[in-house]
Amino acid sequence: xxxxxxxxxxxxxxxxxxxxxxxxxxxxxxxxxxxxxxxxxxxxxxxxxxxxxxxxxxxxxxxxx
Length: 65
Known about the structure:
The chain is mainly alpha-helical. About 45% of the residues lie in helices and about 5% in strands. The chain is built from 1 helix and 2 strands; from the N terminus they run ββα. The protein has a two-stranded antiparallel sheet with strand order 1-2. The longest helix is centred in the last third of the chain and has 30 residues, at about 35-65. The N and C termini lie far apart (about 55 Å).
């Protein structure tokens, strides 16, 4: 279902039944470069464990042994 931003009506046709505005089709997102995608995955695979380790270190420093 589509949502008309002008009048707030939910509708399933091509045109809003209340105000008659035709919603334009969204443009597809451009494809990202393969090198960028690889760099982002590596950053996730390295960054998430480092973030978890940083949280562990902070908790360890607060409570200590």
